[in-house]
Design goal:
- The chain has a single domain, classed as 3-Layer(aba) Sandwich (Rossmann fold).
- Helix 2 links the parallel strand 1 and strand 2.
- Helix content is 46%, strand content 10%.
- By secondary structure, it is mainly alpha-helical.
- The protein is built from five helices and four strands; from the N terminus they run αβαββαβαα.
Length: 126
């Protein structure tokens, strides 16, 4: 969801790549709630961080605590930002209905959007 928002909101200023240390694949519920908000992430994919080894990164933004705690070290010239968000799939496992599960995704989607909206300004100040 963060990559989708970064491409939509900061598309001309941010070249976004989504990767993780333990990619889980594209979640259908994430695709669904992003589509509701007008962002199509259906062609995105979950990459392992190693796939971006040859990409020159200026900034790394971690959005889950697990990644933040276990992310490898980056070169000193890479600025790392962290903003933790709840994990919608984990929350959805305990939901009593599909609508309740989707509510978790929608809340986190909206929280991520609000954070991504602050990034271009934050990055220029870094």
């Amino acid at each position: 969801m963060a990559e989708g928002w970064a491409r939509k909101i900061g598309g001309d200023r941010i070249e976004a790549y989504s990767a993780g240390i333990d990619p889980q694949g594209l979640n259908p519920n994430a695709v669904k709630v992003m589509r509701e908000a007008g962002v199509d992430i259906s062609t995105h994919r979950s990459r392992h961080l190693d796939e971006l080894a040859d990409v020159k990164l200026d900034y790394v933004v971690t959005v889950c605590d697990h990644a933040h705690e276990h992310c490898p070290r980056f070169p000193a010239k890479v600025t790392v930002f962290h903003q933790g968000f709840d994990d919608p799939p984990r929350l959805a496992r305990e939901a009593s209905s599909e609508e309740e599960a989707l509510a978790h995704y929608r809340r986190v989607r909206d929280e991520i959007r609000a954070y991504i909206e602050t990034l271009p300004d934050s990055l220029s100040e870094a």
